[in-house]
Structures are given as structure tokens and as C-alpha cells.
Amino acid sequence: KENKKSYLYFSSLSLIVGFIISSWFYFYNLFRYGSLTAFNTEINKTINLERISEFVSFDGISNYIFTNPIRPYFENKFLPIFYSDVWGDYWGYFTFTSRFLEIGRNQLNIGAYLGRVNLLSLITISIIFYFYFKTIRDSNSQTLLFINYSIILSFIGYFIWVLLYQTGSQGDTIKATYMTQAINLIVFISAISIEKIKKPSNYLSIIFILVLIFAHNFQSYLSHFPMFFPN
Known about the structure:
Layout: H1 2-33, H2 49-56, H3 78-87, H4 110-138, H5 142-164, H6 180-195, H7 200-217
């Protein structure tokens, strides 16, 4: 009972602090645009099960996930774009652009490399998810439970927003950066169980595999454009 009061106090205080810090933005939208949630794109009013199914499907683009996971090959497909943007560079911010293809480095073969990044990252995401669910299952911590619900609600809220505000045919509101806070929390929670692995050989094997994948994927974390790239 005492814990429930403490968490209620903590949650209420967090909401108040968050409201004080960020409410100005929403009131600005209300006074200027007439809505607390104003956005520069019209809301999608034709939502149905068929459209949702198409939005999350891999139809027609599955061949590109591990061969050429860069725009515009995934059209407006949520899962392929989000996965490729988490591990690689689907939008080409660091490796290529549609405006300056002649300046971006390795733009002709970057798709094949990012395809390998996606493939190897299946191992990484499997490890992360396995230990994430293990942590949640084995822990009685109310804090971890609260964080878990926060992650779930963040993804649900983001998915609804992307579904309602699909911009054009390319799905350019689908960006992993919008969910950085939730992705980082998933990794942190996963690390709790990884650190508790009792057998040293198992622990070192997992770390070794992750380091190898990190080394292979390292180029996807770096910019491939010259220092004085034109605006």
C-alpha cells in the first residue's frame, strides 16, 4: 500500500513537471492553429482494417529488406521502414540523398551493405528481446513494470500517430528517432538480465557476438558525406 502511494506520488509529480516544461508548445498550437495537436499534415480519415493490414504488411517489398533497405523501396510500409531505420539508414541522412546523389559516398552499393546490417541485426534484436522479456518476467520491481508500460504505451501512441498522419506514399513520418526514448529503455532493461548471466562463457559469448555485429554495422552510424556538404 505504501509503495502504491509512493508510485502515485512519483507519477503525479512527473506529469506535473512534464506539463510545466512542455505545455507551452501545445498551448502555442491551440492559440495559433486552433488545436492542441496541430500538425502540418491533414489527418487521415479513411482508416479501416484493410488499410491497417496494408500499412504493416511486407507485400511486394520483402525482397528488399536484406538486399536494398533504402528509400523509396518500402513505399509506406511501417514495419520494414521502422526496422531498417532502427538499424540502418533507410532515409539516407548519413549515406545518400535524393538531391545530391553525386556527392554521397558509396551510394551505389550502400543498399547491399545496409541489407547485411538488417540481416545481422536480427541476431541483435533477438538477444535484446529475449533478455528484455526475461527481465520483465523475473522481476517484481514496480519501477520496471512502470517502465514496461511506458514503453508499450509509447509504441502504441506512436503507431496511432503515424497511421493517422501518413504523409504521401513514402511514409516519411516513420522514423526511429521518434522512438529513441523507448528503444533505449528496452536495451537498458535487457542489459539487466544479461549482466545476471552466471556462466562466464555464456556471457562472454553473447558480448563477443554483439561486438562483432557492432563492428560490421559501424559504418552505418557514420556520415558518408564530405565535411562541407551543400545545403
